[in-house]
Specification:
The chain is mainly α and 50 residues long. The protein contains 1 helix and no strands. Helices cover 62% and strands 0% of the residues. Keywords: Membrane, Transmembrane, Transmembrane helix.
């Protein structure tokens, strides 16, 4: 397969997008742990229902 600049740029773009989503996922998981809002505390928000 002939690897020209367009193919290499496409592969790099895909890798950057995947890296971005992995980074966002890691940030969200760390933020949930830091603020104590894990899945085990689901529904414990308190207050009156609307």
């Amino acid at each position: 397969m002939y690897m020209d600049a367009v193919v290499i740029a496409g592969i790099v773009a895909v890798l950057l997008v995947l890296g971005f989503f992995v980074g966002v996922g890691l940030f969200v998981m760390k933020d949930q742990k830091a603020h104590g809002r894990g899945p085990e505390e689901k529904g414990k928000q308190g207050g009156k229902p609307v």
